[in-house]
């Protein structure tokens, strides 16, 4: 079985094999204290129907990456380098009006805290309709109101809500129902890529499970690729096919979900997996020692070296490891695997 | 033996006044349980969003008053105590809230949440001694005093802020720590660190903990016993080994089946999607009847009592009507003693 690293995939990005290819993406925030490299050279590739989870500590750059994929980075943030190919087209080069057509049509976001992103004074169905009308490519093809109503009802049904919900205001809905409305908006134009940024945090397990299963069903129906962002490793295990681990703005490991959980390569991933409580046995709680770095003053060499139990003196604090494929389908950036090549 | 803290038949109603045209909401419905005086315990209170967990916490702290029933501290009604007794209650029962930001004043340095109570409750004899007690407490939760003190709340991460609150509890050495979702906003590795400090408070400092959460995995890991609330009533309660590992109430079963296991080999089954609790009205019989896969006629006409199914478990469900109804009201009566030997697994220096 051969596999493509993001870099080789990017070279063949004109091919239709991948829905999304990200190549050496860099997003910086210019702040009075200095430049924050929130996304610092991330590369990845997604095929249709694939479910990639991006995990990492708070502040590791997950939401910044999600917003950049939508080309919604706001000042003081800036995409300073890299490429994002959506269906073969480099969206970093597009003018805003053109990008606007792609949003919702080609790539859609369920934002972090989506349930608070709804307009409080607008009925649910009007919010869904607005999204559709805003993004229809051809003004002449604007559907009539009866057709729109039908579409809203179909969308609500697909996320498990009844047509009455369309006539309600957000404050009349529970958190789980609002989250599903945000998801209905995201799929309203059958995008090929769905980015879901912590779609269920703050919801309880029963509702969480319903929402993730809804997302999975929708994605299968559309054959869309999904990027699920979050730090709930339970949800990741339940939902994803592949997992990418971010640390201080960098992707430090990427691989198939099963392997990430049973045989993590990067020491950070290992600690992350070990810190998870389970229901099988009562374990000692182990956190990851040390603190996440401030992105303003990153450690030299490997950014993880001050917290790393496998620290190699003389190497890790001086040389930044390359992110590379070390086994089929497994990529990581760690000196432990420097000599190993796939 | 008087209990340290005791709830007697506590109910809380919201809204539903004469003019509202709606029936009142029973946020809590006749809850009775106690925290013993003679041994430190960890009790989890779990349940979905809106099940009444925070309401229960606020009543236990004396911040909210029950609509019916009583809260007793060392045998005295907290609504009536005053003066020195009240001060003692406020020292001995310390909260940690879900959002650590709410516990801070953004204009004061972090030090404020430590120095003020240290002074008020006369911790240490001198300023220097107070300072060293504060540093000791910060060390105990894995924080460096020099990285923490002198900073403003927004200069600390969420997990650091939360640990300062745990340090505050350590400093004050309360008898009871009431933690409402202390880790729901932090990521997995910090979650472990914070829960470890809470656990240590119990095991080495003899502080009883009430751990409120909807995360049954951590509830299983930290607590000895658990109370599962469903819309203000006790659905099931008892030792975590029984309630979480072998749930008997259909609601607890639904909760446990829905836990996202961090293991791709143990996948969720399909859920029978039976609506959100919020969308349902007040029922006559069992509150869970509309969502219950085992619903029977009896469930629609009467509220099931708490049946004593196992030595260390009760459940309010007619499926177990052959088991006797619990004699005493206090569900803590069936709680299991704490199990220390069970904790295994890797230990890192
Ligand atoms: N508008 C901004 N201005 C300056 N810095 C920012 C801004 N937004 C984010 N950052 C910084 O960029 C880094 C990455 O933030 P981001 O929100 O992408 O993290 P995240 O991984 O999504 O975290 P979380 O899990 O907490 O949502 C953080 O250090 C954050 O402080
Ligand atoms: N001040 C209030 N006025 C009216 N209703 C309230 C008030 N506080 C709580 N409630 C209602 O009481 C019920 C229980 O709420 P509570 O906050 O105790 O739930 P919870 O179990 O803590 O939920 P969560 O997991 O979301 O924190 C809910 O239906 C809530 O809407
Ligand atoms: Mg984020
Ligand atoms: Mg609450």
Quick summary of this structure?
The complex is a heterodimer of chains A (342) and B (349). Chain A is α/β, with parallel strands linked by helices and 342 residues long. Chain A has helices at residues 6-11, 62-69, 96-102, 124-135, 145-158, 175-187, 205-222, 233-239, 257-262, 267-274, and strands spanning 20-31, 34-46, 51-55, 77-86, 89-90, 107-110, 193-197, 225-229, 242-247, 250-256, 324-327, 330-332.
Any chance you could write out the topology, listing elements then pairs?
The complex is a heterodimer of chains A (about 350) and B (about 350).
Chain A: H1 6-11, E1 20-31, E2 34-46, E3 51-55, H2 62-69, E4 77-86, E5 89-90, H3 96-102, E6 107-110, H4 124-135, H5 145-158, H6 175-187, E7 193-197, H7 205-222, E8 225-229, H8 233-239, E9 242-247, E10 250-256, H9 257-262, H10 267-274, E11 324-327, E12 330-332
Parallel strand pairs in A: 3-8, 3-9, 6-7, 7-8
Antiparallel strand pairs in A: 1-2, 1-4, 4-5, 9-10, 10-12, 11-12
Chain B: E1 5-14, E2 25-35, E3 42-46, H1 53-60, E4 68-73, E5 76-77, H2 83-92, E6 93-96, H3 112-120, H4 127-140, H5 145-148, H6 158-172, E7 176-180, H7 188-205, E8 208-213, H8 216-222, E9 225-230, E10 233-239, H9 240-243, H10 250-258, H11 297-301, E11 306-310, E12 313-316
Parallel strand pairs in B: 3-8, 3-9, 6-7, 7-8
Antiparallel strand pairs in B: 1-2, 1-4, 4-5, 9-10, 10-12, 11-12
